Every structure is written in C-alpha cells, then in structure tokens.
Amino acid sequence: MKNCTRVLSLVLLASLCTGCTTIGYYHQSVSGHLSLISKRKPIADIVNDSGLDKKLIDQLMLAQELRSFASSHLKLPENDSYRSYVQLDRPYVVWSVFAAPEFSVSLRKWCFPIVGCLKYRGFFDKNDARAYARKLSGLGLDVHVSGVTAYSTLGWFDDPLLSSMLNRGEIVTASYIFHELAHQQLYLKGDTGFNEAFATAVEELGVSLWFEHGARQVEQDRYENWIAQKKVFSDFIGQARREFRQLYSTDLPADAMRDEKRKMIAELRQQYEGLVRTNDQLTRYRKWMAGPLNNAQLGALALYRDLTPAFKQLFVACGRDFSVFYRRVKEISRRSQEERTRLFRSHLEC
C-alpha cells in the first residue's frame, strides 16, 4: 500500500508541475522533484550548526517563525512543509510556459487526470522550457516563459523551503510561504485563476497581519502601499486586455488585425511610461514591461490578480476570520463555473 501511495503521489506531482501525459515530460517532472526532495535537510539541524553562514541561519529562523505564524494565525495547514531546506544551484526552481492564440486573450490549457486543467506548463530545466516555448511559437501561438520561485504539491509531499524563497527579503519569503500553504488549504480542480487568486489573497492578508501582529506599523503601511501599487498596475493591464479582447472580436482580416495588435502593444508601452512619470513607484514593473506584452504574458498576470480583490473583500465580509473565510471559499468552490463567475461579479457575502 505504501508503494502504491507513492506512485499515486508521483502521478499527482507530474500533473501539478506539467499537465502532460507524455513519458518524457512525466520523467522530467518526477525526476526533477525527487532530485529536489532528496537534498532536503531539516532546518532544525541547520540552524544549530555554528559553522554555517550566519545570514542563512537568520533567514531560516525567520522562515520558521513565518511558518508557525501561518498555522497559528492564518489557520493554514500544520505539517512538515517548509520545515526542511534545499539549496538550489539556480535562481528559480521551475520555469512555467504560458501560451495563447495569436488573436485571443484566453490562455491555453493542458488537461490531465486528478487536478484537471492548468493554464501553464512547468519545467525543471530552463532550456527545456524555452525549447517548448519555441515549439509553441512555431505553431503560431503567443508564448511567455516565467521563472517560478516556489511551487506546491498540495500536501502530497512535505514541500521544502528553497533558497530561491529566501534571497529577496522578509516580505517575499513570507509571501511564498503563505501563498504555497494556501494551495494546500484549498485547491479547486481545473480552475487556475480561482486557485492563484485565492492563494494571492491569503498571501497579502497574511503578510499585512504579520506586520500588524509585530506592531510594525511603518512596515505594514509600506507593504499595503506596495499592494495598492500592484493593483494600480494590474488594473492598467486589465484594461489593456479588455481592449485586446475587443480588437479580437472584430472581423478584421488577419494581416490588418496583426498590424493593429502591434500598434496597441507599442501604445501600451507608451502609456506605461506616462504612468511612471506620474507615479515613480511603478518603475518596478519596467522589466516586466520589456517582455513581449503578448496575449500569453498579459494572461499570466491576470491569473494572479483578476479575482484577488474579490477574495479579500470576502475576507472582510467574513469578519476577518480565516476559518470562516476558508469555509465560505470552499462552499463557493463547489458551485459551477457559471455560478462562481456570477458570484465574483457581485458583492460576495459570507
């Protein structure tokens, strides 16, 4: 029975990371993860090793405080996830490939048993991700490749803390831990946008509460301003996606539509520069704006941002009680796609 459970877990992992049924893809997914977990070391042992780098030990101790806070205050799963550590030899643990038709803002899906359809496909090797992206591009699709700092196996494995989760400061470390544990708390098969927005909402609510709990008002205010600026940028891109969707709904010939699309992308870059001139906090998105700005890149951002405000509003409606909030989200997750869409377009009540 134990071996059967292990095999089932690996099948789930292959689905989570990739959404592919080919043997080669299954192999890279499973071998990549098994290689990762084979390097795990208990954090409790590492922090007691006086011969190790003090900065790393401090980072790991902070991560353990955040891990405990996630369960005690955010009511996220209490297990051995993020109680072990893996030092990576690369900046990202996996790379996700997003794709969309040339004249559609809807992301392509990869479907498989157990977890349903996902709107991305992940690779443990950057070159494999780029090669697959080139293949999709050759089929006429818009593609976008993004490095991923952490991922969740939804509680099937005890996910390790990764070096990629530590190197960008306290807020980012907290965000990754809270976000990935939220996926363990609730996962809706086949709805990537729902899952990512829910986890993002828990992440942002959790980080704010972390600062509040520590009576660190200055840091909390700074963080909430950062989140507000993320919403400004997200709304800006959301409007662009609506304009592209409107373009694609017309009956323009392909060549004319392609020309109009190029013009709109150029205008989007100009509009962004105009925003930056009035709000220099948006300069942090300059690297992102240097990307292709195609349907796949715009769609990838939407997965994480479109429904996040609605989840956060629901949290407030639930009296800021995480347990009540989770119960209500679980109830919503049982509704049909049509009912969920209707609910999210209205004022959600607890």
Q: Strand tally, please?
A: 8
Proportion of residues in extended strands? 5-15%
- Taking strands numbered 1, 2, ... along the chain, how are they ordered across the largest sheet? 1-2-8
Query: Any idea what the shape is?
Result: globular
Let me know the largest β-sheet: 3 strands, mixed
Number of helices: 14
Compressed to H and E, one letter per element, the order equals HHEHHEEEEEHEEHHHHHHHHH
Write out key terms for the chains shown.
350 residues; 14 helices; mainly alpha; three-stranded antiparallel β-sheet; disordered N terminus
3D structure, described in words:
By secondary structure, the chain is mainly α. The protein has a domain of 85 residues. Helix content is 59%, strand content 9%. It has 14 helices and eight strands. β4 and β5 form a beta hairpin. α1 crosses α2 and α12 packs across α13. It is globular.
Give the SSE layout:
Elements: H1 2-17, H2 23-37, E1 41-42, H3 43-46, H4 54-72, E2 84-86, E3 94-100, E4 110-112, E5 116-118, E6 121-123, H5 126-138, E7 142-148, E8 161-162, H6 170-185, H7 192-213, H8 217-248, H9 254-278, H10 286-289, H11 295-305, H12 308-317, H13 322-333, H14 337-345
Parallel strand pairs: 2-8
Antiparallel strand pairs: 1-2, 3-6, 3-7, 4-5
Helix pairs in contact: 1-2, 4-6, 6-7, 7-8, 7-11, 7-12, 8-9, 8-11, 12-13
Give a summary of the structure in a few sentences.
The protein is mainly alpha-helical and 350 residues long. The protein contains 14 helices and eight strands.
